[in-house]
Amino acid sequence: MLEIIKELLLPSQYIPHGHCYLWQTPLVGLHVVSDGIIALAYYAISLTLVFFVRKRPDLPFKNMFWLFGAFIIACGTTHLAEIWTLWYPTYWTSGALKLFTAGISLYTGVALIPVIPQVLSLRSPRELEVMNHKLQQEIIDRLRAEVSLQEAKEELEQRVLDRTAALERVNTQLRMSEATLLEAQQIAHIGNWNYDLEINQVFWSREIFYIFGLEPALFAPPLPEILSYYAIEDAELLRNSINHTLATGEPYHVQLKIYRPDGELRITENRARAEVDVTGKITRLYGTTQDITDLKKVETLKDEFISTVSHELRTPLTSIRGSLGLLLSGRLGDLAGPGKRMLEIAVNNTDRLVRLINDILDLELIEARKVTFKREFCNAADLIGQAVELVQPLAEKAEVKLVVKALAVQIWADADRLIQTFTNLLGNAIKFSPPQTEIKIETSIDSTTSPNSLLITCQDQGRGFPRINSRVFLSGFSRWMLQILGKKAALGWV
């Protein structure tokens, strides 16, 4: 082995390579310079490749660059060996370097074969430029999309805020409406309820709990317990009403008596309706319960009032009418002209008062808006004259003069009610007129309202009224309109 190493490294029987050039200095220098520059260039290329690979860790095919670097260094070393063998004939060492270089070259060439398709598949600079341009455009589009998305997000957030504010306002209004409804129910002593047939549960508003004398709760008592608060016959009536509504869908309206836990009797008015789904099936009942105990007491007082007025007022009035009629007949002696006239006025007004009291006592007809008007043809001037005669004593006492300018026009009206209207109008005018002033009552045909309109005006010198408009309806056919404008009042027939 030692002999082999000596053969490789130490010159022995061979002559230096320079002898081949006959040791001509220019020729030896040419080879030295040429091989030296080639070796230097190879080493420089290798160092450049190493630097490039280290700076680009993401570089593809990095192993190929290392192989090329090793191959080029080997090539440069063989050229240095050429310079060495000019003086030292270590040809075995030079051959071994060339063999090593050949092996690296061969290996690099073989390794390069599978890489070539991959290298060919790489994009060209033009393609990369186009792709880069597209990528930049996509980035711009993405940025625009992000901006649009951000704007949409901000708009959505603003809409959510607006919607939330609107919902809060609606909730506030609903709470206020609910509070107002509860207050209204409390004032009217009326509550609402729902009977859900699907879950067999009754729901009460707060006022119904108070009507039954119970503490408000989330749910109403079960239906059997609710029925136990009613009188026996009324509980049966309510049960039959509910069953009838469930069977026919018709609403019910009944008045029932309940007993509170403390034994107090209350009278209630109950209304209910049925709600059906799209298939026609009844799904729930809903309605109201109103405590009408106080109203019943008022009705009782009304009946007592009617009875009192009928016996305590109408009876003496009838007696007065009989006495006045007896005086007017002359059986008790004749009266002078002015006295007889005053007696006639008293008799006429007593008869009219009796008729008005009869109308007042007929409260049921008034409540049903079925008051009967005794309409007839009458002279407007005569009616105004009768009203003036009635209030003349008041005018004289107040030192007010009544001036009448009335047209003798036939109208279709209830004379008693019309005289009462004129009397009230004149009485108010006298009441608010200063002494030593005049009240003018005039009639005229007003064609601006209707071709058949009679305008009756009453003008005084009082302080006047606020500017308002009101209507007084005396009958379905003869409609009277009372307009109070400043100090001038106009009563028009339409």
Describe the SSE topology.
Blueprint: H1 2-9, H2 25-55, H3 62-84, H4 91-121, H5 125-188, E1 190-196, E2 201-204, H6 206-211, H7 223-228, H8 232-248, E3 252-259, E4 265-276, E5 282-291, H9 293-329, H10 337-361, H11 363-367, E6 375-379, H12 380-397, E7 400-405, E8 410-414, H13 415-431, E9 437-445, E10 454-459, E11 468-469, E12 480-485, E13 488-493
Parallel strand pairs: 7-9
Antiparallel strand pairs: 1-2, 1-5, 3-4, 4-5, 6-8, 9-10, 10-13, 11-12, 12-13
Helix pairs in contact: 2-3, 3-4, 9-10, 12-13
Explained architecture:
With 494 residues, the protein is an alpha+beta fold. It has four domains: 2-121, no CATH class; 189-291, PAS domain (Beta-Lactamase, 2-Layer Sandwich), CATH 3.30.450; 298-367; 375-493, Heat Shock Protein 90. It contains 13 helices and 13 strands. The chain has helices spanning 2-9, 25-55, 62-84, 91-121, 125-188, 206-211, 223-228, 232-248, 293-329, 337-361, 363-367, 380-397, 415-431; strands at residues 190-196, 201-204, 252-259, 265-276, 282-291, 375-379, 400-405, 410-414, 437-445, 454-459, 468-469, 480-485, 488-493. The strands form three sheets. A six-stranded mixed beta sheet has the order 7-9-10-13-12-11, with helices on one face. A five-stranded antiparallel beta sheet has the order 2-1-5-4-3, sandwiched between helices. β1 (190-196) and β2 form a beta hairpin. The longest helix is centred in the first third of the chain and has 64 residues, at 125-188. Residues 468-494 have low confidence and may be disordered.
